[in-house]
Amino acid sequence: MKLDRYELKAGRSLTTFEFLSEGKKGKIVKIIQFQQMNIENLYNLAFGDKNLNTGTLDDQVITDNGDSEKVLATVVSAIYAFADRYPECWIYATGSNAAKTKALQNGN
Q: I need a surface site. Which of 1, 21, 38, 70 has the fewest CB within 10 A?
């Protein structure tokens, strides 16, 4: 099954991606980052809204833009791009709070 997803803009190293979520609350810039952890070849998957004042990722905000399935499909496509480029690496992902972790586990 092929799900609808947003167009990704990737950094040269394919460790940072951005895309534009479009939904009931307007257009929101999202960031996906693969951050190297203290264990070799282990990367943390960080995801959230782009803080337009600082340019940094904010994983605490809950946007509720009505496009969660499309957003999740877009994150998965970034995971595939990263894994294709770095096949020896492992990716660790958890939500920034219990509700987000549950959504990740349920695919919502």
A: 1
Q: Is residue 2 part of a domain?
A: no
pLDDT mean values, one per 10 residues, the chain (108 residues): 90 96 96 96 96 92 90 95 97 72 54
Residue 1 lies in a domain: no
Q: Which residue range forms the structural domain that includes residue 78?
A: 9-106
Q: Is residue 3 part of a domain?
A: no
| Number of domains composing the chain | 1
Does 50 reside within a domain?
yes
Rounded to two decimals, the pTM is 0.85
Cα–Cα distance for residue pair 81/96, rounded to 1 Å: 23
CB-side exposure of 99: number of CA atoms within 13 Å?
5
3-class DSSP state of 47: strand
**Residue whose pair of structure tokens reads 């282990």 in the numeric block:** 42
DSSP 68: H
**Torsion-angle region of residue 107: left (phi > 0), alpha (psi -120 to 50) or beta?**
left
